[in-house]
Amino acid sequence: MSRDFFTFDDLVQHLGRDRRQVERLVNRGLVPGRKVGGEWRFNPTEITHWLEQELRGLDDSGLAQLEQSRQSPELSALPVTSLLLPETCEVPLDAGTKPSVLQALIELAGRTWQVWDPASVLKAVKEREDVMSTGFENGVAIPHPRNPQPDSLGQSVIAFGRTFSGIPFGAPRRQLTDLFFLVLARDSATHLQVLARLGRMMQWPEFLDRLRATESGAEAYNIIRETDQQIGSA
Predict the structure, then answer these.
(1) Which candidate, 99, 213, 217, places its Cα nearest to that of 158?
(2) Is 53 part of a structural domain of the chain?
(3) Which of the listed ranges 11-15, 48-52, 220-224 does the model predict with the highest average pLDDT?
(4) What is the largest CA-CA distance in the chain?
(5) Which helix (H) or strand (E) holds 133?
(6) How many other C-beta atoms are found inside a 10 Å radius of the C-beta of residue 123?
(7) Is the pLDDT of residue 14 over 80?
(8) What is the rounded average pLDDT of the residues 21-28?
(9) CATH code where residue 220 lies
(10) Which of 49, 106, 156, 234 can bridge 185 by disulfide, Cβ–Cβ 3.0-4.6 Å?
(11) How far is it, in rounded angstroms, from Cα 159 to Cα 105?
(12) Could you give the CA distance from residue 48 to residue 208 in angstroms, rounded to a whole number?
């Protein structure tokens, strides 16, 4: 698509939902958009941010539908494992504050040699956190830049870390956070597909409990890969 906006038809295709369902959302003002000359126009960046918030309220079926509608060419049938490596998993993560967690995660991702401009990426991740924390009530956070970073990354990357004690990360109800997935994507399709799969993993039985019982990055990687495979074959 050469234009810098979505039409209504583009939006339906992008969301992968029934046209009537999208019409209801748009007409109720639940999707960010505006009319120009009587035609709906939607900003792709605003739609991505709206979807990020929608993810928090979706069940496994809704997340699976969103995941299937993305299908990034950069990812295999196992979206998370496609971008995560044993060397980008660290337990314990040596950090005790939000800024130190973000710095440590960027350094982990840098082990792949795919983070070409760590300072710019870290700045983008911090700016996203300033808009709204990526922390969930279940003690998980998924920090990421507000926009894709094609100029700062050779390939998309995921890094995981667990702190042995929870830290304040801005999650709802002041819930402390101890599990962190850094998602650095080169494009919005990869970004949203990964977020949808991570959302499904967080709902997978015992997944978070098993991660909290890990003692090493290698063990955490194996748990994440195994859960990614189980969901992919479900």
Answers:
(1) 217
(2) yes
(3) 220-224
(4) 59
(5) none
(6) 13
(7) no
(8) 88
(9) 3.40.930.10
(10) 156
(11) 6
(12) 26
- Rounded mean pLDDT, 61-74: 82
Residue 73 lies in a domain: no
Q: Determine, yes or no, domain membership for 15.
A: yes
The torsion angles phi and psi of 139, rounded to 5 degrees, stand at: 85, 10
Q: Kindly state the average pLDDT of the residues 155-162.
A: 97
127 lies in the same domain as 51: no
The residues near 46 (Cβ < 8 Å, ≥ 6 apart) are 32, 33
Amino acid at 8: F
Residues 101 and 60 in one domain: no
**Cβ contact 89:215 at 8 Å:** no
A 10 A CB-CB count for 24 gives: 12
Residues 15 and 120 in one domain: no
User: Distances from the Cα of 27 to the Cαs of 21, 56, 81, 86, in angstroms?
Assistant: 10, 22, 38, 46
Contact assessment for residue 171 and residue 135, using Cβ atoms and an 8 Å cutoff = yes
HSE-CB of 64 using CA atoms within 13 angstroms: 10
Domain presence at residue 2:
no
Q: What are the structure tokens assigned to 49, written together?
A: 């941010």
Which of the 8 DSSP states describes residue 29?
A: T
Range of the domain at 122: 79-233
* Residues 98 and 165 grouped into a single domain: yes
Which amino acid, 198? L
State the first-to-last Cα distance of the chain, in angstroms, to the nearest integer. 33
Is the overall model pTM greater than 0.90, yes or no?
A: no
